[in-house]
Amino acid sequence: MDHFIKYITSFAPLATIVATLCLLVFCIYGSLKSSPHQSRLTGTIVEVAILATIFVWNAYINRRDLQLRGREVKDRVKGVIAELETIRLQPGQELKIPSIPSVSTVRVIRSGIVRTMPSNLIVKGDMIEMVYGDVAPCKVLCTLSQHRIENPDLPFNSQGSHHNPHHHSNQDLRHQDYSYGSHGTSPHVREFFLKRKETFQPSLFGLPPSEGVQKINNELQGRFTFEVLETPIERILHTALDPAPRPKSLIQKQLLVINKIIFFKIFLAVAALAFIINLLRYILKEVLQLDHASNGVEQLLALPVYAALPLLPLSLPTLLQISKAYTNAAILVLFNTLQISKTEYEDEKDVDEFDVEAPPPTKNVTIESKEVWKRFWRLLTRWGNSGQDFDDGLTRSTNLVESLGGITVICSIDKEGTIATAFPAVEQLSMATEDHDTVVLDTLEDAYLPNGLRFEDKDWENYIQSLKPIGLNQLLNTNCGTLSAPRRKEPHRKCNTLHYHCRTRAAQQTCLCRLGKEIGFTKEAIYPFTLQKEIMCYHPYLPMPPMTFGKLATYEIPTMLSTIYHERNSDSYMVLTDGHVECVVECCTDYWDGSGLQELDETMLKKISDFYQTAVVNDFQCVAYAYRPIAIDKELKVAEFDPEVSEFVTLPMRVMPDTEDKQSDKLPSENGVPSNHDEHEEEIEESKDTGSSSRGPSEIKRIDISSLPDPINIVIEVGGVDGPDDDDVQHYPSSVEESGISGSRVESGPLQRWRKLREMDMELPYEEEDETEPQPPISAQEFYEDAVQGQIFLGMATLAHQPKTNVCDFIEDLGLAGIRFVYFSPSSERESKAFADRLGLETDWNSCILLSSASDPFGASTGYLESYDIKAQLPRGIENIRPHLESVDDIPLHVSLFAECGAEAATEMIKIFQDYGEVVCCIGSSLNINNIAAFAKADISVGMEPIRMGSSPESRSAFSLGAKINSLPCGLTMHSETSLYALTQVVREARRLLNSQRQGVVFMIASFMSISLLLLVSYCFLLPPAMTGYQILWLMWIIVPLLILSFFFSPHEPDTMTMMPSKNISPLRDVPRFILYFMARFILPIGMCVFVFL
Asked: What is the pTM assigned to this prediction?
């Protein structure tokens, strides 16, 4: 009712009521006086009826539009709920991609089975599994009580169930003493809560880690059970249904200005002028000459109404509804067709692809007109639930066509799976050489080659002896079916049980068997090897150094996977290891240089550390490789190997000699951020033994490897494609100062820890074993712990998430179209700039702004790195952006990179963009639970699927439903395989349609003004009205709208994607110039119409 009252009190409806009343008075007066002729009175009655109907119809249109706009997201929610009730979801879906930040998943225990599900589908009361490094999807409570930690020797009823990553018993899940206050526990019992977005770290149970925590961690194999205390979807729906509307589009603001100028000021001026002309005409002619005073009502009421009637926007609401329905239908059908089509994007025939001003390439697709009109009719006549068809988009609340056609900024709030590949691509291999140096070989992805990649260095085969053990490791330490599956060219995931017990980064989950095949290994070369045992090793209490030269942005537990293989030809055993660099290096004593074994001395450790740290700060992920032959006495065999059961080993903490009295200064704080009191005080004190061995290297059983076979001597076929002739092998510099990294900061990295550990090993006395004395048998656990020690370091591989195909060209073409691309990065400044450089963004002076607050304990750094950035007075923290814009300069509105940016900061920055007139398009992962607020705030949002999901009802899974929930505020959703060029082609079409809509409105105004001018001229020349009322309505409702609709079928202009879009602020700022251009454009046709009439 409030909307209706507001509508009828606005100017256009009020003027319509006044015009209708004037004509009604004329009808009544004419009926009483029987003058004028009855036919004219009948026509006036028809006109009154038509105007009354138009008034009611426009009121209905206004009310319907407001209701549909407010119900659009609600109807989507109803549609998702209906789908959840009617479609039976698959019991679980194994992710085909690594664990990446843009995919929010959680392991839920339901019906005794552990399922990987989207985080937004868990509900209060669910039991979930979490490992160190996982981020809490909502408020959760650990099922471990303080009493259980203080008594670690209590039996676990479900100890065996933890070895299977897929099965649990519901009865076993509650074997621990819950510490809920509501469950009747005493107030002094400590509860272990995690808030939403808080990282699960060992510090949750207190520091230093107690003996009970370490023992329980080993028995649970790193998998702790938490109870969900809130339902995440409630927060999601509250954010998606935010009553705060999106900003009005530019064309809406322009229509308001036109309504104020044309339909208010000019309407009143024309009505007053017509009244004055007819008053003079009535006095001078009707009264003084003809003595027909009875015609005064017609001339003073009806004729001014006819002159001003065309200037009322009577047909505009209906015309806007029809045009919006058609343009939205055309955009949606085009977008869906582009996603389905398999053709490539190509430049137009008359466009040079090397021209810097060439528009973006397009895909030549055929749009079915039948499908467009079908979608048009559905959008035009919709009243009920609109959420059952997700492809219809949010056409009203997002102003789909207006927002797409007016985009000035495209913000990317995710990286992996959206603008970058979900799988990191291998970039470099680092190995030792015979001259005690290291060599770096570059690799390049190439989908046209048999293995999908190649070495860029032309002489890479010279290092084949160093590459052999790494290639063998990459082929054997995977379960992708190397022996049985056909050759795989595309990146794929390496699924092993390590990922169920430890939070690993994408590099450790990416299978590199393709690189092993490129090195030259064939199936026949790995047939003799049989997997005997998997040993999962992780180091939960290793203090992570500040690799980003600040606080860590991502908490990570060093892990590695060691596998024991039996080589049938020589009947020997070996250990192959890959994993985190710090974890692997600590377990190595020697390194392989391609010809023999060398001691892993401080010089080589320095080179490894330099390469590792430089890779990390340049947004690379590192994987280290190691090898060790082991001798197993057949008679005194410790245990039968069972490949189906994996062993879980927690690497022991080592005491640092100079840190025993400074434990409190070196332990991470309760929030997981390491203290920075001293660069040499970063190690933690040894705690009590947790049940796993904490023996030093001198206690590890020494093995004579002289008689054991070496996998390096395996004969393989060298293959691959030579790189360009001008590419030489890159030798890594002796220090990282050449990369701009401070040497003093390097000393606080892993090198210092490795140096101290080796100093400790050198100080330990070596006791020779008496071979005559019988050796007591060792336990299986001790054997596995010994097996991963004393390994041979082979080398490292760096991997990085590369931009998707055409993304760099897409960003470049956006700049030509006047659209700025902005990337919100959660990483530190250096890492963010490294990835931005791969995207082609500006990374020089004044190119990056940090959105984390200096006082934020979870910030990724202590400030800007370069001194010139400090001199530029760049703002630090999202709370300082608005004051900076108001008092300093507008640099934050022009940069394309924001680092150390969380979800809240990105949402606030989008608001700032909108306040300064930007039309923001937000693109992000539809499976990231943290994106919902940014999606809801942007003018138009595009939810991108980071993984491939089925669209048919039979293939829909929990992930497809979770993606729909996160995409509730999104106007468009994009499949994972869809190129971002689909967005530029849709923007191109939206600009064409939006320009046609503007031209149609201008033509309508000119047509209606010509009718009013024609009537005024007829009044001035004392002629009868040029048109009757129903003739005017006929032109306004039938003829002119049909001409306007023809504008939507006009072809594309060549410069559509090279014109700069206008900002959504101060529409029609130069009104006099607009009026001048308007008169210059239409004065001639309007004058011709009047001249012809005369």
From this structure: 0.85
